[in-house]
Amino acid sequence: MADRAVRMTKPARPGRRTVRRLVEAEAYRRVLAGNLPATLSEFVEQLSAWLRSDYPTASVLPASELEEAIRDTWHRRHDIIGSDL
Prior knowledge:
About 65% of the residues lie in helices and about 0% in strands. The mean pLDDT is about 80. The longest helix has 15 residues, at about 40-55. It has helices spanning about 1-10, 20-35, 40-55, 65-75, 75-80. By secondary structure, it is mainly alpha-helical. It has one domain (about 1-10, about 20-80).
C-alpha cells in the first residue's frame, strides 16, 4: 500500500504536494454511504485518522486545510443523499 500512497501524493502539476483530492473523495464516499458523525469537527478528525492509517507516507494536511477541503461536501450532505440526517 505504501507505493499506492506515494503515487497518490505526487501532484499532476508542479507545485506543492497535496492529498486534498484524496480526502475530498473519501468525504464524498462517506456522505454517500451515510457514514457520518454529528459534527464537522468530528468528521475532520475521522478523515485525518483515516488518512494517517491508510496513507502513512502521504503529506500531512493540517486540520484547518482538511476542514476547508470537505466543508462544501459537509454542508451539501443532505442534498447529496436526499435525506434529513
